[in-house]
Amino acid sequence: MPIYEYHCNDCDHDFEYLVLGNDQPDECPSCKSSKVNKLMSRCGFLSKGDGGETLKTSASSSSCGGCAATSCAGCSH
């Protein structure tokens, strides 16, 4: 059962929601607004060398490595 991240457009609150099947959150747990959007979750990968040293990380190779946005929807990178 995956946990997804959501963002409320009314109160700017980010929250997690356990999704069962096609279930989606009906409202923001903070302000009860129904204007919520699923966020793109971040993931990270490491490339290791023969000696176990980190050669490359997905975040450092991306233009979004230092991004502070809560969603990629309006990103210009």
Written account of the structure:
The chain has 77 residues and is mainly beta. It has a domain at 3-52: Rubrerythrin, domain 2 (Single Sheet), CATH 2.20.28. Helices cover 5% and strands 27% of the residues. It has 1 helix and 5 strands. The chain has one helix at residues 58-61, and strands at residues 3-8, 14-18, 36-38, 46-48, 54-57. The chain has a 3-stranded antiparallel sheet, with no helix packed on it. The two termini are 32 Å apart. The model has no long low-confidence stretch (mean pLDDT 77).
Low-confidence stretches: none
Order of strands, main sheet, comes to: 2-1-3
Radius of gyration: 16 Å
Q: In one word, what is the shape?
A: elongated
Judging by the overall fold, what is the CATH architecture of the domain at 3-52? Single Sheet
Short summary:
With 77 residues, this protein is mainly β. Helices cover 5% and strands 27% of the residues.
Features:
5% helix, Rubrerythrin, domain 2, elongated, 3-stranded antiparallel beta sheet, 77 residues, two-stranded antiparallel ribbon, 5 strands
Topology:
Layout: E1 3-8, E2 14-18, E3 36-38, E4 46-48, E5 54-57, H1 58-61
Antiparallel strand pairs: 1-2, 1-3, 4-5
